[in-house]
Design a protein that fits this description.
heterodimer; A: 581 residues; mainly alpha; MetI-like fold; 75% helix; B: 385 residues; alpha+beta; Rossmann fold; OB fold (Dihydrolipoamide Acetyltransferase, E2P); 2 domains; six-stranded mixed beta sheet; five-stranded antiparallel beta sheet; 10 helices; 25% helix; 34% strand
Chain lengths: 581, 385
């Protein structure tokens, strides 16, 4: 095998080119034609244009409309002839409440989420995968279904108080129930973020610290946490803004108590558009500031690690302390997040045909659904609406999200790209009701007058909401792919578009599927923004809110159950897709 | 048949902050197997990608057979490129990978199949035609990459550290096979490597690069015996450098004085040198070129004056052995010269076995060392980066 002589005769030769000249087919020719840089530039420009016009435009325009109609807003908010600045005072109050609720919910989340994330990344045990799925579950449950479930569990005599033998609900609608709802709703975001970070921080550093004599808790506080800092801050800010802007579930559990996003809905319903615009703008600005903070400052925050408290930390590191801490984290998750979030399931089963209190059929699922007002028919209309809206929104999103993902992952535009990159995330954290109202102002009769509240306006809102869900997984997967793989195809004679079709696209497919599934579920469950723009159209989450308001709990429960089952199936599908990559 | 010319090619990255190729002019003759060699970050891969068209030069021209390829896309250049990380398309079989270059150009199926199988036979992989990349071993993946590149029937082949990911034991036979393949197909090939031994063993010509510049371009023998800088001399093999100054300079010789008032001896200079009397110089001897002479032997030689006539003239200096290390095939000696300079010598361990640590000996320097001007920044010249 080994040939040491440097010279050898040319005794091997590839076949002479005696075969027919290559005849590229139509597809190859078209791809070659459209691979010219000018078409790429055109596509990039269209994509950016679409993004700015359909997603950023409405958000920016609300600022302009506030400036343009400032005198009107000033009169309405600060100097009403009758109520003077009552409107402004109310806004201050609701904003203050929203901030307090978000802060408390986020703190509870952190306290509950840290041990859970640690359990899920640093221990091996049976059923870990199931626990992992259960933790993610509240994220997939549509917000109004989640709100309803928590309301049933805590707030009515059919939930926990029924088990305890009380007559009324244990916790009445209002701030405490809102906090509990927001904890359940943002918990998966926190745990997910922390989990990713803990997985990335190598255990080696922890082992090194342990070998130097640090007890477990000290290792966690001085080594693991500082390394996880960025992810922790990112998760915290995300959870905080999500809680601040949450509308769909809050409406259900709030009772007469009002938060800022709910007040936007109320102002819009009472046709006080100037005030609604003003409050929406404030909420959107807050989320923009949070986003900037996340991007710019999260790396600069430090943790105090120099001091060590040997006695306390050693005590906290003993085996009993560790076990009780893990047990506490686990049981609080079950009691505060899991069971309330899924309480609809036993409820619907229990109340399906017979009222467990009276033994009759009053207020059962079947009786409410097939009552003379024909909720059953409404339900199916709303299911069809939801599916259509989710399908169309997802298709529009993928059509523009794919080129956007390519831009974010590949173009070298420096600062400009960083800006676009940050803007893509806005719909993730913008308060949903404010976003919905901005869309309504932009497209509706007061703005461009293109869409009236209803089917297509809902789609416009959902496209904006789902866009980051489509773009992010695709960007992640492209960034993980070695650009040389595409270079290899180019050196072999493939035009850029042929390379995209034969190499890049197959590689991106799991990301595309994951993004589409996420986008579809997000659209199926979206409540807060949809309420603002739905007009007379009913989607499933909206119909749940309607039925809770009319106290048709059994029917609302059945609709929630449909959404939960759907989301659960989708979540499993999503996991399968991600595992394949 | 391709001849590649570069004219004043410059490439910068990060808005001009990083200079990867600094005004490079270069001609690669048809049929040559040329190696790009240099420390990591010296710009060798960038230069390869520039020539292959995977990067566009910031300025300058690249001509292939006299044609400017400046604005030609990589897919229209008809080149073969073998990547360091192979870049075998994971969703395709071995056959589909090798056929890819012909498929995307629209060849008919019969031709595609014939050429692809021929290419796979050349790399001895025709038994894994239907396997997927994840079923293959690293050397097999490398063979797929090679077959895929030559199946384009391009006359040029570019290889970016193609053997870098292979186990050292496999690398050696593989590199000779690579050369055989390139020579039998008559390709003009350029290969990037950081393995000096590999380059020495199979290259026709070697380009030594540092910080975006070409230091020397020549045959392996040129680079080893006639390096044009201390850096190149230090980059190949192991070299002892001695500091000193010269006197009695003639057109082909001089007297070299070791520093610190050390001994002096005659050395030959290359014709056309530019050294002047009193110039500070560095001279270099390969570790295997340093003779160690045991004292009793040398006395015998002195008294009898034998053998020295058919041996090249040898300058001897008194020294003592600080350490003698046995490393299997060879033995390495750390030797302290009488002026305090410490040098190393390496010899087959079968000989000189009886020279021991602490022993006083004579060190023999032949009269054809590498002679360099004393550099402005010695530390930079001697660093391998």
């Amino acid at each position: 095998m080994e040939i040491t002589a440097k010279e050898s005769r040319p005794d091997i030769e590839l076949s002479k080119p005696d075969f027919k000249k290559p005849q590229p087919g139509a597809v190859l020719k078209i791809e070659k034609f459209f691979s010219k840089p000018r078409y790429r530039i055109a596509l990039d420009a269209t994509t950016i244009g679409f993004f700015l016009f359909l997603i950023i435009g409405p958000l920016i325009s609300i600022i302009f409309s506030v400036i343009a109609k400032w005198s009107e807003i000033y009169t309405s908010v600060f100097a009403d002839p009758i109520t003077n600045d009552v409107q402004w005072q109310i806004m201050g109050t609701v904003l203050g409440r929203s901030f307090q609720i978000a802060a408390i919910a986020t703190l509870i989340d952190l306290a509950l989420g840290l041990p859970m994330a640690f359990i899920l990344t640093r221990y091996e045990f049976k059923g870990k995968k199931i626990l992992d799925t259960l933790v993610d579950l509240p994220m997939a449950v549509p917000t109004s279904a989640l709100g309803f479930s928590l309301y049933l569990f805590w707030g009515t005599n059919m939930g926990i108080s029924g088990m305890l033998g009380l007559d009324g609900g244990l916790i009445s609608t209002g701030p405490i129930l809102i906090i509990l709802t927001h904890v359940a709703f943002t918990y998966p975001f926190i745990v997910r973020n922390l989990k990713v970070i803990f997985q990335e921080t190598s255990k080696i550093y922890e082992d090194a610290a342990k070998s130097l004599g640090a007890p477990g808790f000290t290792v966690f506080r001085t080594i693991t946490l500082p390394l996880a800092k960025e992810g922790m801050i990112a998760g915290t800010i995300l959870a905080f803004t999500r809680s601040l802007g949450e509308t769909g579930a809050t409406i259900i559990v709030a009772g007469v108590f009002e938060t800022a996003p709910m007040y936007v809905v109320a102002l819009k319903d009472s046709l006080n558009f100037p005030a609604a615009a003003f409050l929406s703008m404030i909420l959107i600005l807050i989320s923009l500031i949070a986003l900037m903070f996340l991007r710019v400052f999260s790396r600069r925050v430090g943790f105090p690690v120099s001091r060590v408290f040997p006695k306390i930390e050693r005590a906290l590191s003993t085996k009993p302390a560790r076990i009780s801490r893990n047990a506490l984290g686990l049981s609080l998750f079950i009691v505060i997040v899991l069971v309330p979030a899924l309480y609809t399931v036993p409820y619907v089963i229990q109340w399906f045909s017979i009222n467990p209190f009276t033994g009759t059929t009053t207020n059962t699922v079947l009786a409410t659904l097939f009552a003379p007002d024909n909720k059953w028919a409404w339900l199916w209309v709303s299911v069809v609406n939801s599916l259509e809206i989710a399908g169309i929104s997802t298709l529009i999103c993928i059509a523009f999200g794919l080129p956007m993902a390519m831009i974010l992952a590949k173009r070298k535009w420096g600062k400009l790209k960083e800006l676009i990159d940050a803007l893509v995330d806005i719909p993730l954290i913008a308060p949903t009701a404010a976003l919905g109202f901005a869309m309504y102002l932009f497209w509706g009769p007061l703005g461009l007058n293109v869409f009236q509240p209803g089917f297509w306006l809902i789609i416009m809102v959902h496209v904006a909401m789902c866009f980051p869900y489509i773009v992010r997984p695709i960007v992640a997967i492209i960034q993980k792919t070695d650009p040389e793989l595409e270079a290899a195809a180019r050196t072999l004679g493939a035009s850029p578009l042929t390379t995209f079709r034969t190499i890049t696209l197959p590689k991106m497919l799991p990301g595309i599927i994951a993004g589409m599934i996420m986008s579809f579920t997000r659209s199926m469950g979206e409540t807060g923004a949809t309420i603002v723009v739905s007009g007379l159209i009913r989607t499933v989450p909206i119909i749940i809110v309607d039925w809770v308001e009319t106290s048709d709990l059994a029917a609302a429960g059945f609709a929630s159950l449909l959404l939960i089952i759907f989301s659960f199936i989708v979540l499993l599908l999503l996991r399968k897709t991600m595992e394949r990559t | 048949m391709p001849k590649i010319e570069l004219m004043d090619v410059t490439k910068t990255f990060s808005e001009g902050k990083v200079l990867a190729s600094d005004n490079i002019t270069l001609t690669i003759s048809d049929g040559d197997f040329v190696f790009l060699l240099g420390p990591s970050g010296c710009g060798k891969t960038t230069l390869l990608k520039l020539i292959a068209g995977l990067e566009d030069p910031s300025s300058g021209k690249i001509l292939v057979d006299g044609k400017d390829l400046g604005m030609v896309n990589p897919e229209d250049r008809n080149i073969g490129f073998v990547f360091q990380h192979f870049q075998i398309f994971p969703s395709m079989t071995v056959f589909e990978n090798v056929a890819y270059g012909m498929t995307v150009r629209g060849y008919d199926d019969a031709s595609i199949e014939r050429i692809a199988i021929e290419a796979l036979k050349l790399v001895k992989l025709d038994h894994r035609v239907l396997a997927y990349p994840k079923e293959l071993s690293t050397p097999e993946l490398q063979k797929v990459g090679l077959a895929r590149a030559i199946a384009t029937r391009s006359r040029t082949l570019f290889l970016d550290e193609p053997l870098g990911k292979l186990d050292p034991k496999i690398r050696r036979p593989f590199r000779h096979e690579l050369r055989r393949l390139i020579k039998t197909l008559g390709l003009t090939a350029i290969q990037v490597t950081h393995d000096q031994e590999e380059a020495m063993a199979i290259a026709d010509k070697i380009i030594v690069m540092r910080a975006g510049k070409i230091l020397q371009y020549g045959s392996p023998e040129d680079l080893y015996y006639r390096p044009n800088s201390i850096f190149v001399a230090n980059f190949f093999g192991e070299t002892n450098f001695l500091e000193g100054f010269v006197s009695n300079v003639t057109k082909d010789s001089c007297t070299f004085h070791l520093h610190l008032g050390g001994p002096k001896f005659e050395v030959k200079l290359a014709p056309g040198h530019a050294f002047k009397n009193g110039a500070q110089v560095m001279i270099g001897y390969r570790v295997e070129d340093i003779e160690l002479i045991e004292l009793h032997e040398s006395m015998q030689a002195e008294s009898q004056e034998l053998d020295l006539e058919d041996k090249p003239k040898m300058n001897t200096i008194k020294a003592s052995v600080t350490d003698a290390i046995f490393i299997g095939p060879s033995k390495r000696f750390i030797v302290k010269l009488e002026n305090g300079d410490v040098i190393q010598a390496k010899h087959s361990s079968k000989f000189l076995l009886d020279i021991q640590k602490g022993e006083d000996i004579l060190v023999g320097f032949h009269e054809h060392p590498m002679v360099f001007e004393y550099p402005d920044d010695l530390r930079k010249e001697l660093s391998k980066a």
